[in-house]
């Protein structure tokens, strides 16, 4: 079995103090993808920067210190690794990193969140355009090398109405715009499969992010924006998928929860 978890940690230093360190020590995952790490490697405690039994790839933002940042932790030493996806604008912004394992490419993605009517949304749309081209190229390149692909992360888009609790109120908000949802259609029509939705076709959810405001967590008023997008061959081997939602609000170490998928490889 191959087990992969992905989670937006909402600040790796803060999450490590709240319970991430213990979760990382106890998880059965073989690979963990993290987003919004917000830290330089030297700022992290050794137990997080170089945890025993893991091979970490850390990709902080070089353009906005303390913002964004992604990471991939693997129990198997990667054959190779890359930061960025060949983008002049985004490769140093801490938005994407990937590793090569035997027969598999695993990427960690933190797609910009955007904000309607602002330059942040323009940035998000530029990223989406470039990254879709990269996803297609990656699919073809991996297939030529007889590898599967798994791109995990915070995609900052709820794809369908069953992917967020209050979809009617968010139809004009970033993260659920028609053009963003159409972009996700293109991703999943281009040789990638939403593994969690494959195994949980009905919904609602399972949600992976809940606002800290109000009682969103307690009421399970969330969004499903953390995805594992697998190449078709790997998706066919997925046997289980679940969100590791904390038992209670005070036990959360992020506003997201790990999304964990097991593959029979």
From TrEMBL:
The keyword Magnesium applies. The record marks 226 as: Important for catalytic activity. Mg(2+) binds at residues 8, 36, 154, 156, 255-256. The keyword Isomerase does not apply. It comes from the Bacteria. PROSITE patterns: AP_NUCLEASE_F1_4. The record marks 156 as: Transition state stabilizer. GO terms for molecular function: double-stranded DNA 3'-5' DNA exonuclease activity; metal ion binding. The record marks 256 as: Interaction with DNA substrate. This is Exodeoxyribonuclease III.
């Amino acid at each position: 079995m191959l087990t992969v978890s992905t989670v937006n940690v909402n600040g790796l230093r803060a999450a490590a103090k709240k319970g991430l360190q213990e979760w990382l020590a106890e998880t059965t995952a073989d690979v963990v993808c993290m987003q919004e790490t917000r830290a330089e490697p030297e700022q992290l405690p050794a137990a997080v920067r170089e945890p025993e039994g893991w091979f970490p790839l850390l990709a902080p933002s070089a353009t906005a210190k303390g913002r964004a940042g992604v990471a991939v932790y693997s129990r198997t030493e990667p054959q190779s690794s890359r930061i960025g996806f060949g983008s002049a604008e985004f490769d140093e912004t801490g938005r994407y990193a990937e590793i090569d394992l035997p027969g598999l490419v695993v990427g960690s993605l933190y797609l910009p969140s955007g904000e309607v009517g602002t330059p942040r949304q323009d940035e998000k749309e530029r990223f989406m355009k470039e990254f879709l081209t990269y996803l297609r190229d990656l699919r073809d390149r991996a297939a030529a090398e007889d590898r599967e692909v798994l791109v995990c992360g915070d995609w900052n888009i709820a794809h369908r109405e069953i992917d967020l609790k209050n979809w009617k109120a968010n139809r004009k908000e970033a993260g659920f715009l028609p053009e963003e949802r159409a972009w996700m259609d293109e991703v999943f029509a281009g040789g990638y499969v939403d593994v969690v939705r494959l195994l949980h076709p009905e919904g609602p959810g399972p949600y992976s992010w809940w606002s800290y405001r109000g009682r969103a967590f307690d009421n399970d008023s969330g969004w499903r924006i953390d995805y594992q997008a697998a190449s078709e061959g790997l998706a066919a081997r997925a046997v289980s998928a679940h969100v590791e939602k904390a038992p209670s609000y005070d036990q959360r170490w992020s506003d997201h929860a790990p999304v964990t998928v097991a593959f029979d490889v």
